[in-house]
């Protein structure tokens, strides 16, 4: 449930949970967000809240945002195009990964995680993120 709330929050606010500040927006590349750290942390994406993103590099996100990272979570996003933003999330203590997209794809369960005791890891999130592009 926690992973779904995090992913839904990401989709609604264009925010997510990061292991470090994210500077320039890439094209169609996974941006790993929370890396499963034990402590919560806050980070800036594309300069932080309200910062305009350079129109020469902008894809889906046009304004920077701040992110609050919850402990033990993994979250990634990708700006696939000017009209497609995908997200995936999971918990190191949970058992399912979730995925969502801006293409009318609500945040939904992707699959059972593959770690010990069904814990999610980065591979589970990458797989879910790839699948989110087809929602």
Question: How does this structure look, described?
Answer:
With 135 residues, this protein is α+β, with helices and mostly antiparallel strands. It has one domain (2-132). 17% of the residues lie in helices and 30% in strands. The protein has helices spanning 2-13, 122-132; strands spanning 30-35, 41-45, 65-69, 73-79, 85-91, 96-101, 108-112. The strands form two sheets. A five-stranded antiparallel β-sheet has the order 1-4-5-6-7, with helices on both faces. It has a two-stranded antiparallel sheet with strand order 2-3. Strand 5 and strand 6 (96-101) form a beta hairpin. The longest helix has 12 residues, at 2-13. Mean pLDDT is 79; it is low at 1-18.
Could you list some keywords that capture this structure?
135 residues; alpha+beta; 17% helix; disordered N terminus
Category from helices, strands and their pairing: alpha+beta
- Give a count of the beta strands, DSSP E runs of length 2 or more: 7
**Counting H and I runs of at least 4 residues, what is the number of helices?**
2
Helical fraction: 10-25%
For the termini, the CA-CA separation is 20 Å
Q: Could you report the average pLDDT, rounded to the nearest whole number? A: 79
Q: Flag low-confidence runs.
A: 1-18
The main sheet orders its strands as 1-4-5-6-7
Strand content: 25-35%
Largest sheet: 5 strands, antiparallel
The run of helices and strands is HEEEEEEEH
The best one-word shape is globular
How many domain regions? 1
Q: Please compute the radius of gyration using only Cα atoms.
A: 14 Å
């Amino acid at each position: 449930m926690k992973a779904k709330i995090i992913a839904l929050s990401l989709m609604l606010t264009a925010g997510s949970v990061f292991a470090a500040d994210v500077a320039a927006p890439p094209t169609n590349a996974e941006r790993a967000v929370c890396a499963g750290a034990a402590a919560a942390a806050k980070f800036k994406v594309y300069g932080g809240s309200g910062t305009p993103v350079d129109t020469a590099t902008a894809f889906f996100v046009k304004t920077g945002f701040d992110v609050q990272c919850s402990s033990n979570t993994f979250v990634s996003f990708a700006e696939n195009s000017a009209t497609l933003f995908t997200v995936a999330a999971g918990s190191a203590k949970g058992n399912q990964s979730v995925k969502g997209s801006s293409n009318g794809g609500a945040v939904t369960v992707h699959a059972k995680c593959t770690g010990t005791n069904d814990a999610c890891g980065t591979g589970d999130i990458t797989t879910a993120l790839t699948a989110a592009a087809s929602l």
